[in-house]
Amino acid sequence: MVVQVLRRIAQSGSVVIMTIHQPSARILGILDRLLFLSRGRTVYAGTPAELKRFFCEFGAPVPDNENPAEFALDTIRELENQLDGAAMLVQFNSRWQEASRCALPAAGKDSKLMCTMPLELAIAESVSRGKLVAGSGSRTASATSVPTFANPLSVEVWVLMKRSFTNTGRMPELFVMRLGTIMVTGFILATIFWRLDDTPKGVQERLGFFAMAMSTMFYVCADALPVFVQERHIYLRETAHNAYRRLSYVIANAVVAFPPLVVLSLAFAVTTFFAVGLGGGGGAFLFFVLIILASFWAGSGFVTFLSAVVPHVMLGYTVVVAILAYFLLFSGFFINRDRIPDYWIWFHYLSLVKYPYQAVLQNEFRDATRCFARGVEMFDGTPIGSMPVAVKLKVLGAIGRTLGAGS
């Protein structure tokens, strides 16, 4: 039962505040003490068992088979409608509390103090256990010696990781959708760029495949945008009360997000690497997987950063799509670095797409012995490329003779 759990938490030294809309007799039996307030003034403070006797001595006995708490609330509400409000009940409570204390024997008073310690002692005990954090204005020695955080960094990371894994496990459809998007995108790219040959045209098609593949990694990460936006108020509230360190939250979420990214990277690499016909063998494949994983990692971090800045999810999607488009524009695929104006060159180095794009190019074309232009293919993309093959052969022969004469 929830109330029993809250009672155990309170007994451990924490301060628990709860509201009960319909206090049942079962809940009253669990509580140790009750406090009824009327416009900020105490009208009853005692155990649930003494509630009937209190109202009986006040002159408003609780009827049989009626919930004492509901009867007390109804009586207080009726008194508040009068001119003096519940002042009569407040005064009676003061006299009743004084009479109850005088009626207790000495031993009873000591036991009573043992059961219900004063507020100052209760707060000091909670602070000493790490359940509360003392403010800077506290002058007690026990308060000033308490650390800012109740738990070490490792415990905070472990607890936050368990919570994140639990939340992720409750929504497996999110990961399935991301995996499905990656698989479909990889299948489309594999069928479009199927088995590219080692020709100048194949080189151009490889460049297009790499640009599309690397930008896809970042766009897929946009689904992480609403995660922190929805949890931001919880994060701010918990960190404001020193429930855990900000570093613990970052580490825990990074660790939890890493395994799905590995699966997504392998899925995309397996779908596209061999189907497109990329070279390099097993070593190049592993490096290709690492590049994709790094792209996912950077994209997730970038989107998480934006989610902490933008106030709304829809605004965040607009900003993410726009910035990723700028990253792709300045990555070096559409325009070379030498052609970018000096006042925009900083965006070229800021682009997150630039670095994985250059990495996959190095991975594919690092073999100096690999030839992509043979014979007249070297004229493709030049003014001579539109001439007849016979003319190309004559020009190629002339170049060969010239080079041979000069060698």
TrEMBL record:
Listed GO MF terms: ABC-type transporter activity
Main location: membrane
Domain ABC transporter family G: 21-97
Transmembrane spans: 175-196, 208-229, 250-278, 284-306, 313-335
KW Transit peptide (keyword) present: no
Cellular location(s): Membrane
Domain ABC-2 type transporter transmembrane: from-to ranges: 156-365
Record keywords: Membrane, Transmembrane, Transmembrane helix, Transport
Pfam family, one: ABC2_membrane
Its membrane topology: Multi-pass membrane protein
GO CC term (a single one): membrane
Protein name, entry field: ABC-2 type transporter domain-containing protein
